[in-house]
Amino acid sequence: MPGYSAMSLKAKPKSLFIMRILLIIFMFSVFWAHFPETADAAGFPIPSIKVGVEEADGPEDVAIVLEIIALLTILTLAPAIMILMTPFTRLVVIFHFLRQALGTQSSPPNQVVVGLSLFITFFIMKPVWQDVYQDSLSPYLDRQISYQEAFEKAQEPVRKFLLLNTRERDLALFVKLAQASRPKNHDDVSLLTLIPAFIISELQTAFIVGFVIYVPFLIIDMVVASVLLAMGMMMLPPVMISLPFKLMLFVLVDGWNLLVGSLVKSFGMY
After folding, report:
1. How far apart are CA 174 and CA 140, in angstroms?
2. In 80-233, at which residue ranges do the beta strands (DSSP E only) sit?
3. What is the pTM of this model?
4. Distance of CA 102 to the CA centre of its chain
5. Which is more confidently placed, 32 or 184?
6. Could you tell me which residues come within 8 angstroms of residue 197 by beta carbon, excluding any fewer than 6 positions away?
7. Cα(158)–Cα(148) distance, rounded to whole angstroms?
């Protein structure tokens, strides 16, 4: 047709379709505005939402609301609690050093490393969580103890685990930074002081273990590089030749069994 391009002919049916849809929506809106009773009878319910503040019947209602808010707050902080108050930090850092020492780049992948660290964390923390459930959560759910008593009882096994894996030097550092008096016993140690001390202790331990893991694989890399240099094969990457030897060494000594077993025993829970 003269005066029309192929693109305009294709766009015309689409524009007509959109205009029809808009016309149907407009007619439906006019019908709803003029005949609301007919629309309700036809089975088109309109939901209503009410938001208000009512007077509480007693202090128990306010306490329940505050408990719900506290629970939601704890759920939002659950990832940080899992990472910083459990063996997860030490495990994932050590596994990262192991992967770097082997030179396998992204194998095992991050999902496997994080998943393995997570389940080993569950295994190590099982006795602590059992004590928390038996001494604190279960009596509180049965309404045998109050919220304050349950919180205090839940701190005891957690504090015991943290103190068992925290260096005195790190703990003394945060006690000094907080300008607090020297604690007389373990019960006087505040969790706000103990948790950061535990974190840097875990990082220190993880870096020490990572160095010990790195040394034998580094020696293999140096030997392979020296042999290739002596043979004049300077264009051949040493990592390509040393990788099979490092994997063979790690498999022959049953590396995963030794490493995971040593890590679990290092926390003093088994």
Report:
1. 32
2. none
3. 0.70
4. 25
5. 184
6. 166, 167, 170, 171, 173, 174
7. 16
